[in-house]
Amino acid sequence: MRVDKWLWQARFFKSRSLSAACVSGGHMRINGNHVTKPAANVGVGDVLTFTQADRVRVIKIAALGIRRGPATEAQTLYEDLTPKDDTEKHVPPIARIEGNSRPTKRDRRKLDLDRRGALE
After folding, report:
1. Where are the alpha helices (DSSP H) in the chain?
2. DSSP character at residue 2
3. Single pTM value for the model
4. Alpha helices of 10-104 — where are they, by DSSP H?
């Protein structure tokens, strides 16, 4: 089965074009090998490594899907091997003055620094 189609059926991406863009962008590995073609074949037992949002996902394929069904059905298609990071930093929201929803210039700089630190 094509890797972009499997990612879409397993509900990792909302559309098949988004999953194809992830693969063709060079953000995908199958069994440790870089893949740049969305038509790359995958089978049961293959390990996929890709980025989703700000996380790196490691997935082992347990079954090939027939259709894009509900989320409960999609969760049976894979085994999540993503390591649980206990040291994940949670960035608390910046306290703002009541009635003012926009951050000040100083708050904005602080937000950018906090977000940059959370990604590293």
Report:
1. 3-9, 16-24, 71-74, 105-119
2. B
3. 0.70
4. 16-24, 71-74
